[in-house]
Amino acid sequence: MATITAAMVKDLRESTGAGMMDCKAALTENNGDMQAAQDWLRKKGLSKAAKKAGRVAAEGLIGALTSGTKGVLVEVNSETDFVARNEQFQGLVKMIAQVGLHNGADVETIKAAKVGDVTVETAISDAIATIGENMTLRRAASLEVSKGVVSSYVHNAVVEGAGKIGVIVALESTGKTDELAVLGRQLAMHVAAAKPLALDPAGLDPETVKREKDVLADKYRQQGKPENVIEKIVDSGLKTYYKEVCLLDQAFIHDSGKSVAQAVKEAEGKVGGPIKIAGFVNYALGEGIEKQESDFAAEVAAASGKK
Questions:
Q1: SS3 category, 276
Q2: Angstrom distance (rounded) from CA 56 to CA 291
Q3: Is 280 within 8 Å of 247 (Cβ atoms)?
Q4: I need a surface site. Which of 36, 241, 245, 247 has the fewest CB within 10 A?
Q5: 174-224: pLDDT as tens digits
Q6: Can you tell me the distance from the alpha carbon of 139 to that of 125, in angstroms, rounded to the nearest whole number?
Q7: Could you tell me the CA-to-CA distances from 82 to 67, 108, 133, 163 in Å, in that order?
Q8: CA 217 – CA 195 distance, rounded (Å)
């Protein structure tokens, strides 16, 4: 039987982030073999992670990363906002964004990608075991142009490149990349604030447009307007709607006297060439996740055996 020293326990703790007693048990079970002890802890951690997998993870961080003509957004969720301020979790989000930038935005591809000796999925499971909360890589998106830039903006950033809202905007142009990057960031800030649904009317979900038309038509039918008049009013109402939800038609937040399309056209002089917004992605943390309400005081009382 190998002698388990304090230095061995310390080394295992530093390499795995596991608790002292767990590290001592792992070394004892594996006769002091450090690699086997790490594997033993990982298996134990995966078991712990599985128990946490059913818990709702609606907090966390949006990670944004760009490099020249490419950019990526990832959403990594945790159970509590507190974890978003954990340096290990922040590092995990940045690492996942880096993997997404180089491997594409398919979630399963990212999870299967290797980082050092482990996959991203294993790294997430290890973080679950160490930090003690369920975590998930919920979604990812990427944009790329052949010429131009992809710019990003993170709102409510807790660390550079990660926060509660993340936006990437792709600009296609042969103009000056430094000027394009400035415009791209301004547009990304605009998207975060104005929340457009699409670049232009053609990009809107037909069901969304139909619903808007039906709402407008029903409103004026109830007022007794004739159908030929309603048709004209609905067309006018849709134009107003497009100005609210289509990026190119929206009033530019940095200069409300012009539309985004006009602002981009004016920027072509500075950039030195035509500019096309090739796409944008806007992620807000936890959108669409049904959060569980809990009574924290009751949970603490239950945990301590009090009624």
A1: strand
A2: 7
A3: yes
A4: 36
A5: 999 999 999 999 999 999 999 999 999 999 999 989 988 888 888 888 888
A6: 17
A7: 29, 27, 10, 13
A8: 25
Spatial contact of 168 and 150, defined as CB atoms under 8 Å apart? yes
pLDDT tens figures, 103-150:
999 999 999 999 988 999 999 988 888 888 888 899 999 999 999 999
Token pair of 23 as six digits = 């590290």
Helices 87-103/120-131 angle, 10° precision: 170
Q: What backbone phi and psi angles, to 5 degrees, belong to 282? A: -125, 115
Query: What's the whole-model pTM score?
Result: 0.74
- Which amino acid is it at 274? P
Dihedral Cα 55, 58, 63, 69, nearest 10 deg: 110
Nearest CA among 50, 37, 55, 61 for reference residue 125: 50
In 147-188, DSSP assigns E strands to 148-155, 162-163, 165-172
Length of the chain (residues): 307
Q: Distance between CA atoms of 157 and 159, rounded to whole angstroms?
A: 5
* Residue 123 exposed, middle or buried by CB count within 10 Å (0-12, 13-18, 19+): buried
